[in-house]
Predict the structure.
Amino acid sequence: VFCEVTVTGQRLSGGPGAAIVIEDRSRDEETEQMRRDFVANVSHELRTPLTALMGFIETLRGPARNDPNARDRFLDIMEREAGRMNRLIGDLLSLSRVEQDERRRPVETIDIAALLRGVVTAQTGSADMAGVEIEQVGTQRQVMVPGDPDQLLQVFHNLIENAVKYGASGGLVTVALERLEHEPVMRGAAWTVTVADKGEGIDPRHLPRLTERFYRVDTHRSREQGGTGLGLAIVKHIVSRHRGRLRIESEKGQGSRFIVMLPESVGRL
Ligand code: ADP
């Protein structure tokens, strides 16, 4: 615990004296440290593609000036690096918007089954390219839940994209929507969406930190796959704004399950 002790010269009521103010500043200190780490991480994440871009610009001006093959290859890499910066900035903006909204409960009601069908359709192209089939269970109906459509779309887009990216070796991703009549944690009826893959899974020691900003199990692989390391942090904040729960289960070699639980009725939000 970090305590700050301030001795003031203030008069205590009823007579002269000194007051000692003891404040528990450990939380402030922790928040400040987290903010510093975040700024350092963002700077580092932005500098990596920027350094690559600057290097290629120099090469294109110099040694590769008259080599059309090298120029095309370098321009492709530069486009990829610029895309990475663009995604990172997009995710940073999403994160800051979600954090601002976190105390405001969503006012709309959406059909979560239709939303899931849409996300799956949108990801079919990249899943095909990765050799992954996306199977749906329980999504062929109408299921209304209180929620922000753009934010929930982002949650399931991120989870399904990760399942396709990191679980590709398993060849199958399942997106299942189920109703739980009495969910003790949610104190009532809830809907769960499970995004499961049969990939290599995640070592249990990483699970508690997976939703931290910029935490990756394998940084190189995440970067190669175009990841920003912010996807699950965004998911966690959005689910929390919806008064829901995110549970992550995984076994090395067996695959992973990301379970989002959402309360059924607006009254309990
Ligand atoms: P990223 O942009 O790196 O994908 P995320 O926040 O979405 O960032 O995920 C954090 C890390 O969690 C990933 O880098 C990856 O190591 C791990 N991860 C996420 N989803 C899965 C999954 N379905 N299977 C295995 N690892 C995963």
Observations:
- The chain has six helices and nine strands.
